[in-house]
Design goal:
It is a single chain. Helix content is 33%, strand content 16%. The protein has nine helices and ten strands. The chain has a seven-stranded parallel sheet with strand order 1-10-9-6-2-3-5. The structure holds fructose -6-phosphate (F6R). The site of fructose -6-phosphate has 14 residues, from loops.
């Protein structure tokens, strides 16, 4: 794992935006995996700023989001489809036909899951997958103790995640209990994973992901088995890391070509 620690969430968003923009510029027909939630918002703002300054084009990108709530139609303001359109898609030059989210409103959810996996495969697989992390260690909505070999499927949110996500709903009772999410195997097949975390609330999950044993009790820990992961943290989310100074030392001593 490449671990990059910055003083503030703003500085870590800048690093994350640099990683994403570099690969967009380098690779034609890039397939980008995207996340929702609070964490990537600053990074999306920075990518929009680069686009508006004429420095970045998404024209040749295809995107696949990690997850979507079951039962919320795309036009529902609380859906991840709506989130993506208002926080990125409608503000850059992405071709809407090249953007994909799991269909949480499909009449046959199982078929929709299989279809999503097939679409990712047909696109040639994901080049760079952006991830956040839940306070309980989930990635996508693969909650603790779920299979580490899962593929895109309908999952039940934990009570903790429902509480965490309730801030985006008027009434906590309205948070859907079910989601369609890429599975752990789907995420692990991405060629490069970029995980972002900010704030002390994520510190324990971050510690378990990086320094704990690989275990379904912290699904993000499976990333230790991935050949190419970049983790971008702010100081608050990194404060429980035992080897924090070592990660900083490694970053300072990288050869030029080893830098993201
Ligand atoms: C969102 C997703 C989730 C979030 C995680 C953190 O698409 O897959 O795993 O990344 O729940 O959410 P925030 O960023 O709101 O703390």
């Amino acid at each position: 794992m490449e671990i990059l620690i910055r003083d503030t969430p703003e500085a870590s968003a800048q690093v994350a935006a640099d990683v994403v923009s570099k690969i967009i510029r380098e690779r034609a027909n890039l397939v980008l995996g995207l996340a929702t939630g609070g964490t990537p918002l600053r990074m999306y703002q920075e990518l929009i700023r680069m686009h508006q300054a004429g420095k970045l084009s998404f024209q040749n990108c295809t995107t696949f989001n990690l997850d979507e709530y079951v039962g919320l139609p795309p036009e529902d303001e609380r859906s991840y489809n709506h989130y993506m359109r208002s926080n990125l898609f409608d503000r850059v030059d992405l071709d809407p036909a090249q953007t994909h989210l799991p269909d949480g409103d499909a009449p046959d959810l199982r078929e929709a899951c299989r279809d999503y996996e097939q679409k990712i495969k047909d696109a040639g697989g994901i080049d760079l997958q952006v991830l956040g992390i839940g306070a309980n260690g989930h990635i996508g909505f693969n909650e603790p103790t779920g299979s580490l070999a899962s593929r895109t499927w309908v999952k039940i949110l934990s009570e903790q995640t429902i509480r965490d996500n309730a801030v985006h709903f008027d009434d906590p009772q309205e948070v859907p209990r079910h989601v369609v999410t890429m599975g752990i195997s789907t995420i692990m097949e991405a060629r490069h994973c970029l995980l972002l975390a900010n704030g002390a609330k994520k510190a324990d999950a971050v510690r378990r992901m990086i320094e704990g044993s690989v275990s379904a009790s912290c699904p993000a820990s499976i990333l230790q088995m991935h050949p190419r992961v970049t983790v971008v943290l702010d100081e608050e989310s990194a404060y429980l890391l035992v080897a924090k100074e070592h990660y900083k030392w490694i970053e300072r001593n990288k050869l030029d070509w080893q830098r993201h």
